[in-house]
Design a protein that fits this description.
about 550 residues; alpha/beta; 6-stranded antiparallel β-sheet; binds alpha-D-glucopyranose
Length: about 550
């Protein structure tokens, strides 16, 4: 087996890695984070107030879920005005203040850009549904019969029976890839393309540092295709990039393209489309690898991972605000994931698992540390979902994906310190089941406990950020004689950090071939201990259950 898969990233040592190449991103659901005015709903001033907490965690960018006016039938991904802030969350002025606070703390702000669809309450659609000839009718995709584009899958398969919905007002069907109340925009209409580019400029002019582009693969439709990843879609995404590039320094574009590796590569273009894309295929592979105690799922995905053009990077993540999606993996792996991580039916949603990280891993701290060790040592940006740093649980009684979007837990006080409102007024209940009760899982308590997960994660992020080799360097998988141990190096210009990951719940020995680094001394990046220098023979490491090591291979 060829064990030299590369995640190739920009390696030209003459060029400094771009500002976005190694972000530690914190995903914030503003509604859930901190309520500043006591109405039971988190808001922008509340978030601004907690920027210090985010900075102290070592975060370098926040990504905000949609903050725009919306009827909130898909938590704000159903937008009714692209140029304002939802009144629950504050005002445009509050948003400007948040930008200032974040920037002053050295934190970039990335917002969601929902390009594919609007809410059916958007003025464009309210006019469009009156029929042909009415303003904005051609902003959407219509058909007299619901049989066009028949090769297109249904994404929200638990709720939607078709990608077409009948509009009685104009006696036509309209096209939608998500909920029926989210009509898709018609990108064949040059007016739609122009409007969207203006919306992009609006937010960039306000000072946002970039966008997480929602549902990027679905913009155009063509008969006889899956209506995903079409060349026309890539061409428009490149138009967004051109606009982002007119700003200085250029603003960043992060793709939500839930696709297998081969389809992901084109989202980077030749360095002229997205700067970053979530590594959707690697995410479930990490969960598979840890449960099977086998590095094979990781090796397979890494081998299939395309090399990236200069200036592009992956965003590695474990969980986010959606279900843990299993759309882009093999059917057998999906069945394994469901059996392993979603035993009860209510844990499943569409082709995914609607659980937070901690309950998913049954609270196994060692496993969770190992997973974070992976995303902090693999190339690219690492993403953290709010609350995972304090071991937050989920609430399966709440429908859709709401169970993983409950209020942030700050303290043992009223409503976990999230809001001063009466508990029944909160937009969602705080987690209070015995195992994950906020009394034990909150920022205050974790801060005060030196051994808490929060403090552990802060230290790891610090170590990660302090080592230049975790920034933009090449990754190479190394041969070991034990498939339960996943070994790789991050290397640049003769310097190397060795990363060893024991995927098993038992202690494991592994011989790692390090002859290229003969004479070097492995020095633990975390504690500083030095091991005996590397000789000619493979080096024997003994690794504790679910443990990981990061060693700098130092020339002494
Ligand atoms: C993206 C979002 C998801 C939303 C969907 C439709 O996948 O992550 O939360 O429901 O787009 O906008």
């Amino acid at each position: 087996m060829d064990l030299q898969p590369l995640i190739s990233v920009r390696t030209n040592p003459a060029v400094k890695p771009p500002w976005y190449a190694d972000l530690v991103i914190y995903e914030v659901y503003v509604r859930a984070f901190r309520d500043s005015n006591g109405d039971g709903i988190g808001d922008l001033p509340g978030l601004a107030d907690r920027i210090g907490y985010i900075r102290d965690l070592g975060i370098t960018a926040i990504w905000l879920l949609p903050i725009f006016p919306s009827p909130l039938r898909d938590d704000g991904y159903d937008i009714s005005d692209f140029r304002d802030v939802h009144p629950d969350l504050g005002t445009l002025d509050d948003f400007r203040k948040l930008l200032d606070r974040a920037h002053a703390a050295g934190i970039r702000v990335i917002t969601d850009l929902v390009v594919n669809h609007t809410s059916d309450q958007h003025p464009w659609f309210r006019s469009a549904r009156n029929g042909p000839g009415h303003p904005f009718h051609d902003y959407y995709v219509w058909s007299p019969t619901p049989d066009r584009f028949a090769g297109t899958r249904i994404i929200f398969s638990d709720t939607e029976r078709s990608n077409w919905t009948w509009e009685p007002q104009c006696r036509l069907h309209y096209w939608h890839r998500f909920y029926a109340h989210q009509p898709d925009l018609n990108y064949d209409n040059p007016e739609v393309r122009r409007e969207m580019l203006e919306i992009v400029r609006f937010w960039l002019d306000l000072g946002v540092d970039g966008f997480r582009v929602d549902a990027a693969p679905y913009l155009f439709e063509r008969e006889g295709t899956t209506c995903e990843n079409l060349p026309e879609t890539h061409a428009f995404l490149k138009e967004i990039r051109k606009v982002a590039d007119t700003y200085s320094p250029p603003r960043v574009l992060l793709a939500e393209a839930n696709q297998p590796p081969a389809h992901l590569a084109p989202y980077f273009g030749s360095g002229d489309e997205f700067h970053l894309a979530f590594h959707f295929p690697l995410m479930p592979a990490m969960f598979l690898a840890i449960h099977r105690e086998d590095s094979k799922p990781l090796l397979e995905v890494l081998q299939a991972t395309p090399s990236l053009p200069d200036g592009c990077q992956w965003a590695m993540f474990l969980r986010n605000h959606d279900e843990l999606t299993l759309e882009s993996i093999a059917e057998a792996d999906r069945a394994y994931m469901f059996d392993t991580y979603a035993g009860a039916k209510e844990m499943r949603l569409n082709l995914g698992i609607r659980r937070r990280l901690w309950p998913l891993m049954q609270g196994g701290r060692r496993q969770i540390e190992l997973l974070y060790g992976l995303i902090l040592s693999l190339p690219g940006c690492a993403l953290l979902y709010y609350g995972d740093e304090i071991g937050m649980g989920d609430d399966l009684r709440l429908g859709d994906r709401n169970g993983v979007r409950t209020p942030m837990q700050w303290s043992t006080g009223l409503n976990a310190g999230f809001s001063e409102a009466a508990p029944e007024r909160l937009y969602a209940p705080v987690i209070s089941d015995p195992e994950y009760h906020y009394a034990g899982r909150n920022v205050d308590s974790h801060e005060r406990t030196p051994t808490s997960f929060l403090n552990w994660l802060r230290r790891m992020i610090k170590v990660h950020r302090a080592d230049p080799l975790f920034r933009g360097s090449k990754m190479r998988v190394l041969y070991t004689d034990n498939p339960k141990v996943f070994a790789f190096v991050r290397e640049r210009e003769g310097q190397a950090v060795l990363c060893l990951n024991n995927l098993s719940r038992y202690i494991q020995p592994a011989r790692v071939d390090l002859h290229e680094w003969r004479g070097r001394v492995p020095v633990d990046l975390i504690g500083g201990a030095a091991l005996p220098s590397v000789g000619n023979d493979p080096v024997l490491f003994t690794i504790a259950p679910h443990y990981f090591y990061w060693f700098r291979l130092e020339q002494r």
